[in-house]
């Protein structure tokens, strides 16, 4: 008896921000339970993403969310950390996919065949689902950061280098959750080191 090919979609959230981990998700959708409204997470409202995330978790055959930490980003670089988070997400699936479809143009090292698909989050339902889970998980983490560090509006800027976030770093300094290899934090560290050498 032939069976259908098990496809996992993989995407990430948080490559560009100045703070927090990069988060990846892997999703194996159930072909018998299609989900309406799947799309690139960036095109959906926060409310729509949240409600779709609940449906994805209920209807998918398997899903997993994983991350690479700020320390790993600073040590490896953002690309390698992203690929590591993707690798962890695929490893976290409860069933082994026959093939993995990854959003973008780079692939993590995986134990099964994989394809990188540019703009895959708007073309492939399983990648769209992964993009939604990754974004929802990371946004929830940013809300927690805001509660932890109320001087920083992480719930609004999500750690991206907005004018507001840059002003917060300027006023309050950087935090342990900031990526030390990303500017302007990198420049601030260099300046501090220079000052301590002079004094």
What key phrases describe this protein's structure?
7 helices, 44% helix, alpha/beta, single chain, 5 strands, Nucleotidyltransferase, domain 5, five-stranded mixed beta sheet, 199 residues
- Number of helical segments with 4 or more residues: 7
What is the top-level CATH class?
Alpha Beta
SSE string: EEHEHHEEHHHH
Radius of gyration: 18 Å
The CATH level-2 architecture is identified as 2-Layer Sandwich
For the residues shown, what is the average pLDDT?
95
Question: If you had to describe this structure to a student in words, what would you say it looks like?
Answer:
The chain has 199 residues and is α/β, with parallel strands linked by helices. It has one domain (7-193): Ribonuclease H-like superfamily/Ribonuclease H (Nucleotidyltransferase, domain 5), CATH 3.30.420.10. The chain has 7 helices and 5 strands. The chain has a 5-stranded mixed beta sheet with strand order 3-2-1-4-5. The longest helix has 24 residues, at 125-148. The protein is elongated and about 70 Å long. The chain starts with 6 loop residues before the first strand and ends with a helix. The model has no long low-confidence stretch (mean pLDDT 95).
In short:
This protein has 199 residues and is an alpha/beta fold. Helix content is 44%, strand content 15%.
């Amino acid at each position: 008896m032939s069976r259908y090919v098990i496809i996992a979609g993989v995407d990430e959230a948080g490559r560009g921000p100045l703070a927090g981990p990069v988060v990846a998700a892997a999703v194996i959708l159930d072909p018998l339970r299609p989900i309406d409204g799947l799309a690139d997470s960036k095109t959906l409202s926060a409310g729509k993403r949240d409600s779709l995330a609940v449906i994805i978790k209920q209807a998918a055959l398997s899903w997993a969310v994983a991350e690479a930490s700020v320390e790993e980003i600073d040590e490896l670089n953002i690309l390698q950390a992203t690929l590591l988070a993707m690798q962890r997400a695929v490893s976290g699936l409860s069933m082994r996919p026959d093939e993995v479809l990854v959003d973008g143009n780079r692939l993590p090292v995986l134990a099964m065949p994989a394809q990188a698909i540019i703009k895959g989050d708007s073309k492939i339902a399983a990648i769209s689902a992964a993009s939604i889970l990754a974004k929802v998980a990371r946004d929830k983490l940013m809300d927690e950061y805001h509660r932890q560090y109320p001087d920083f509006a992480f719930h609004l800027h999500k750690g991206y280098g907005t004018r507001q976030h840059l002003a917060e770093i300027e006023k309050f300094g950087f935090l342990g959750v900031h990526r030390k290899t990303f500017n302007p934090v990198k420049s601030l560290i260099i300046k501090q080191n220079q000052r301590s050498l002079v004094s």
